[in-house]
Amino acid sequence: MKSNMFPSQPKERTCCQVFWAIFSHACFICSLVIYALLGAVMFSHVEGCRESHEGEYLAYLLTDNETENEIFTNRTRDLINEIDFSWFTDPSQKWSFLGSLFFCCTVFTTVGYGHIYPVTRLGKYLCMVYALFGVPLMFLVLTDMGDILATILSTSYNRARKLQSKVLARLSFRSCCKKNTDSKGGSASLGPAKIILLEPLNIKDALKNNYSFKKKSGKNQNVEIFERLIIRENALLAPPKLTRFERWNSCPELDKGEMVNHMISSINNIGKEVEQLDVPFSLMTFIVFAYISCAATVLPHWEKALNFEEAFYFCFITLTTIGFGDIKLQHPNFFLFFSVYIIVGMEIVIIAFKLGQDRILSLYKKLLFCIGKQYHFLNESHRQ
């Protein structure tokens, strides 16, 4: 009975570690989803149950008793300029549950297209209170998810750089071997001999084969051997380094009963990965435009009035939270299925803006340094 229990313990422990590692991230996302659903229920009840003013406006327009054509034309023009298109829409259709959910998403993402907005006084007050708590919650989710995205980007970029360096090293090594075999003449036909080591060489034997080591004197050789021994000893004594994935999924505090402290420390570190991200700005710009291009290719399939250029423009205005509102979606409910795309896209744009901000700051620092250096040079010349 005991032998059957022991094999399952490591598996259960691993599942527990993974659960608590993603628990804080899942809490933020679930809080945002619940907040959006509650807002959709609230606004659909407040704005969807109001009365339409379409009949009152048409009666006011048709009962105008002006007889002169010029006066009637001017009066009609003034009335048309005062048209509020919310009067001619059915509130129950516009403020359905999905329509209200779409409105809530435009509020806490600060996009605000402008084609759907509260009309009643109570709806406007509730919108201000809803945005007061929804916008910080949305930015918290963006920052938290941005750390995960920044970790993925930095890890992928570093691995690509390492792979590139290995490929270049192999190519340079092959080119050097080819040059050596060509210079040897007759011995080149034998091909490069394979060296088989039956036992590992020590540092002294390995350094004897180094050309730069042969040129050094005996004293310098001993110093280099001693330094290499210290480096190897420190590498052997150092604890093994965990990868990012292992650090993210490891939770040693669970064994000590300090689960809460671990979760609090993970919350306190929100935003650190985005701050420490070092990826070329050109690569991030390419990722942003490629990401928007993917959506611009899919969006015209259900929005027939949009082509690729207009869809690209609409997605860019959305992900940058500008939201002019000049392009109106005929099927905004379908766009809700793009909510995950919008959140990830906003994170990518925020990271791109952060990298662009760093580049601008570095440019200003260089400019101020050049100005200060020039000012110091002029002062020194005047003193002389």
Please give a structural write-up.
The radius of gyration is 33 Å and the shape is elongated. The chain has 384 residues and is mainly α. It has 18 helices and no strands. The model is unreliable at 1-9, 186-201 and 244-257 (pLDDT under 50). 15% of the residues are buried. It has one domain.
Question: Characteristics of this structure?
Answer:
single chain, 384 residues, mainly alpha, 73% helix, disordered N terminus
Reconstruct the topology from this structure.
Blueprint (H helix, E strand, L loop, with lengths): L1 H4 L2 H39 L7 H9 L6 H13 L9 H4 L2 H12 L12 H64 L18 H6 L2 H5 L2 H20 L6 H6 L3 H4 L2 H10 L3 H5 L4 H18 L9 H12 L12 H4 L3 H45 L1
Helix pairs in contact: 2-6, 2-7, 7-18, 15-16, 15-18
Summarize, please:
The chain is an all-alpha fold and 384 residues long.
Total count of helical runs of at least 4 residues = 18
Work out the count of structural domains: 1
Rounded Rg: 33 Å
Share of helical residues: over 70%
Instruction: Please write the string of helix (H) and strand (E) elements.
Output: HHHHHHHHHHHHHHHHHH
* End-to-end C-alpha gap: 94 Å
Look at the helices and sheets and give the structural class: mainly alpha
β-strand percent reads under 5%
Shape from CA axes?
elongated
Question: What integer is the average pLDDT?
Answer: 75
* Low-confidence runs of at least 5 consecutive residues: 1-9, 186-201, 244-257
Largest sheet: none
- The overall strand count is 0
